[in-house]
Known about the structure:
By secondary structure, the protein is mainly alpha-helical. The chain has helices at about 15-30, 35-40, 50-70, 95-115, 140-165, 170-179, and strands at about 120-125, 135-140.
Amino acid sequence: MVTHVPAEAHGDERGALLNFVEAQRGAIRRSVLGLTEEQAASRPSASELSLSGLLKHVAETELNWLRMAQQKPNERQRTEETWADSFRLVDGETVPEVLIFWDGVAKETEEFIRSVPSLDDTFPLPEAPWFPKEGRVSMRWLLLHLVEEAGRHAGHADIIRESLDGKGAFDLVAMSSDA
């Protein structure tokens, strides 16, 4: 069971960063292996987080950052009123549907990143109290942030899954390798 994340080629920063983003996506995706919709939606701790909610949140967060980098409107933009819905499945949404949606976002992220001339290219941050006024970030920063965001939630997913049935990250890697 190999868990090493390689670059595509020696010195290939873009490929290495994309592979690290994908490794963290995989950790979250594997967290729902073999679970029912009810198990994936359950909250076995004091936290309000569930595995299906984490899937949806990270997929929508990646889409949001991608749209900012592309400087396009986000078709799934959340408001203060709908923010909590980004952490739970609503209106008949299912884990397979969220995974398909996230696959599309991941593909679009990779295509976009491979198309930019340089990882040094920047895009503006939105106005928000937590961002610097007139702040800009690079495509490199975007990829590192996606690793951070998915990695943080992969850790949450590990704890939730272990609380549900005792399966840890390496158990889930082995399960996915057997499939």
